[in-house]
Write a structure and sequence with these properties.
The protein is mainly α and 456 residues long. The chain has helices spanning 3-22, 30-52, 58-81, 96-124, 137-158, 161-164, 167-177, 181-208, 214-230, 238-251, 254-259, 261-282, 297-301, 308-322, 328-334, 350-358, 369-406, 410-428, 431-434, 436-453. It has 20 helices and no strands. The longest helix is centred in the last third of the chain and has 38 residues, at 369-406. The protein is globular and about 65 Å long. The model has no long low-confidence stretch (mean pLDDT 84).
């Protein structure tokens, strides 16, 4: 089957799916549904182009997977039927059109930024340098030993059961230990992130750059074991499970990934609705739940798993109550490491504040990136911010590809894999609640880069 046939078939399937969902709309809600359908068709066309592309673009793939099928497609159904995930009495239907336009402006701006940047970067990729090989064993060994010390210290302080129990049981163990939020970040979140970064550093060198000396061959299985131990599937949220699985796929099974990319891209949207609900209930309670029931599409489309559009509506309400934050919320997310004891004016997670403004209160609720930007800088900020974001995605994908081919910009290549793996949860947000792990991983990668330049 030719690539052109695959593209036509995929575009047709997405168009028919969008029309089928749109036809469920009530007459009075048809216009915002139509706007969102237009956004979906742009995103799905973009996604289909990635499916047949000869170039590996994992950051764009993971972003489009969530934005198109995990947010915008469910939004068509939610808007059209008037059934949104959270508390019907909190929904202000006057915000449907502004939220739909916010998403559309974000889509168009992102695509424009992506395409203009891609054309420029494609010319720069024509004359890549030859593969650059440097033995970074000592710097890698230093990072591995440091990660091992962090993990052992965390096991001693928090208890190893806090890393292996289900999420509810682990929370009870941590509460009984008396740790505050800052201590918990240092004793559980940070060791987990350092273990992931160590695996990325070692696996990338060994399997992608082909540095297969004694040190890499020895540390590779040990780093995998440490990553799984500090991020055991029974103990971590489903987004983290997906992120770690994607990291393993892109580093350990890179040839399989490249060979089967069209199939993976085709299956991924289906898996969102087949696997995601199961992962939600698998380890959330005190006991593991292995029961599986085939989800009904209509039930999935209106579930809290896909609440991104309602969070955009909440962002509009929050601005109406508090006004724009003028960068304060994004700064609070980017400077997450500063505790509130030092920074008294540090904002709470945007998704939670917006939910409270809308009339319901959840500790952990989404706020997609366009909503984060809107709360800080308004609709004009969304346009410019998503344009720049499109250029950033191109930059990460291009640097990842050039790093694989040349051996240069290794830290950025590694960071590209991490950003791709965490892109769904970073885009879904809320940013302040989810940025700590990927930011810590990337920080350790650049620390390794500094050490290798010092020839440690």
């Amino acid at each position: 089957m030719s690539k052109r046939s695959i593209l036509v078939a995929a575009l047709t399937a997405n168009f028919l799916l969008a029309i089928a969902i749109l036809l469920q709309s009530n007459d009075r809600l048809f216009f915002p549904s139509l706007i969102t359908t237009f956004s979906f068709l742009i995103l799905s066309s973009f996604y289909c182009s990635l499916m047949i592309s000869t170039r590996n673009q994992p950051v764009a793939f993971m972003l489009m997977l969530f934005w198109c099928y995990g947010m915008t497609m469910p939004a068509i159904y939610q808007i059209g039927t008037g059934i949104l995930p959270w508390l019907p009495n909190s929904v202000n239907f006057d915000n449907l059109i502004p939220a739909a336009l916010m998403n559309l402006y974000a889509v168009i701006s992102f695509v424009f930024g992506y395409l203009t940047s891609q054309l420029k970067n494609r010319q720069a990729q024509e004359n890549l340098p030859s593969r650059y090989k440097v033995d970074n064993s000592f710097a890698t060994l230093f990072i591995f030993i440091s990660a091992m010390i962090f993990a052992l210290y965390a096991f001693d302080k928090v208890g190893i059961s806090a890393f292996f129990a289900t999420r509810e049981s682990s929370s009870l163990i941590i509460q009984q230990s008396g740790f505050n939020l800052t201590s918990l970040g240092l004793l559980k979140t940070f060791p987990s992130a350092v273990a992931i970064s160590t695996f990325v550093i070692i696996s990338y060198q060994r399997n992608i750059l082909k540095f297969k000396n004694l040190v890499m061959n020895l540390l590779y299985p040990l780093s995998f074991l440490m990553m799984i131990t500090t991020n055991f599937p029974t103990n971590i949220p489903r987004y983290l499970m997906i992120s770690i699985s994607f990291i393993i796929l892109c580093t350990t099974f890179i040839s399989t990934y490249n060979k089967n990319r069209p199939l993976i891209y085709f299956a991924a949207p289906v898996l969102i609705f087949l696997v995601f609900p199961f992962l939600s209930s698998f380890n959330r309670r005190a006991d593991l739940n292995f029961s599986y029931q085939l989800p009904i599409l209509e039930e999935s489309l209106k579930s809290g798993d896909f609440d991104g559009f309602q969070s955009l509506m909440n962002a509009i309400i929050l601005v109406g109550v508090e006004g724009y934050s003028w960068g304060g919320r994004l700064a609070s997310a980017l400077l997450f490491i500063i505790p509130r004891e030092i920074w008294s004016g540090k904002y709470q997670p945007t998704g939670s504040d917006a939910a409270r403004a809308a009339g319901y209160d959840f500790l952990n609720i989404s706020m997609p990136l366009p909503g984060e930007i809107y709360v800080d800088f308004g609709m004009l900020g969304v346009v410019f911010g998503m344009f720049l974001f499109g250029r950033l995605v191109v930059y990460l994908d291009e640097k990842l590809e050039s790093s694989r081919n040349s051996g240069f910009n290794v830290e950025i290549g590694m960071s590209g894999i991490v950003m791709a793996a965490y892109m769904p949860i970073l885009f879904r947000g809320t940013l302040l609640a989810v940025i700590a792990v990927p930011a810590s991983i990337i920080a350790v990668i650049f620390l390794w880069g500094l050490l290798r330049r010092l020839r440690l």
